[in-house]
Amino acid sequence: MDYHLFRLINDLSGQYKMLDRIMLWSSEYVTILLAFALFGFFIVGLKKKIYMKTALFTGAALVVSMGIGYVVKGLFYRPRPFIEHDVNLLVLHNTASSFPSNHTLAAFAIALGIAVFHKKVGSLLLLCAGLIGLSRVYLGHHYPLDVFAGVSIALLVVFLLKKSLNKLERGTRRHVTKRVS
């Protein structure tokens, strides 16, 4: 199933010049745009507390997600599609483990982290992150399962961090309420 879906997406590569350019650009630069979005939240956060909270939460989600991703990548080597199969490869890539997709993992960690606090901006960033994941398969660098693993790790980390933050904030409110009483 994974290889079949890979073929459906990667076989489009090289067929349409405009689509090739969009996918190359997405894979290379949209991750950078997401990083700039995170940096923007930090800068604005110097004046508005909610933006700093967003930036710190998202930064933590990114660091933890990438850490988990690197551990998983070290434990489970999976050859990239272009090593095992004849694929449409538009740009060369290193031969490190394909599983999970670091580009996708980072993109979704940022997009999901921001979406927790800012739904509209987060929705737009999630679309961008989805485009990155699709582009990684289109370019022949990852299988769909690699992308799915990146999304899953980021989603799990953001969910657990948000749950921990909520618990921490509830405990802080209870502590402040008891002191005031």
TrEMBL record:
It comes from Shouchella miscanthi. The keyword Nucleotide-binding does not apply. The chain crosses the membrane at residues 22-44, 56-77, 97-117, 124-141, 147-165. This is Phosphatase PAP2 family protein. Residues 55-162 form the Phosphatidic acid phosphatase type 2/haloperoxidase domain. Keywords: Membrane, Transmembrane, Transmembrane helix. Pfam families: PAP2 (PF01569).
